[in-house]
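Q: What structure does this chain adopt?
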Amino acid sequence: MTSGGPSAALPETVLEIERHVAGAGWDQPPRLYALADTADVLAREPALAEQLGLGPDGVGLTPVEQEDLPRDRPLDEVLASIVWPSSVSGCALVVERIVLPPSAEEGMPDEDGLAAEWAANHPDRADVRIVVGVLRDGTCSGVLRVRGHESEDDLVRDPEVSADLVRALLQTLEE
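A:
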């Protein structure tokens, strides 16, 4: 892990989460992680720290995957209902999305259900996996992977790869 506290460790933690999720392939549901300061985990839960294989240096962030997110409601509504305890330093979210070139917008149906089906069958579609992590101090990090570009060199690393997801995650951390 990176030294320099949670803010410095966030980009590596987001990358670690992406690697973990990539190992299970594509077509996965959204996944949510609590991010705990590793030093706090070591101090509060030494047995858990040992079980997770955390080193004694206590540097960085420890991602803890949460239970499956509900699929019967839109993701933005689910995120709006989440409030993290103060022991959580931040959170991260993994989502897969379909992206289309700007030229495709012209033919997109207006109705949501039809638009999703239309996009899923569009010949110019691309599937992407987005991982966004945020901390209580507002620090954010993100990576994006395009399906078919599986090399780590192909990852797009941008703190605001999805500004909407960053905002939604930061709201879950508000007191």
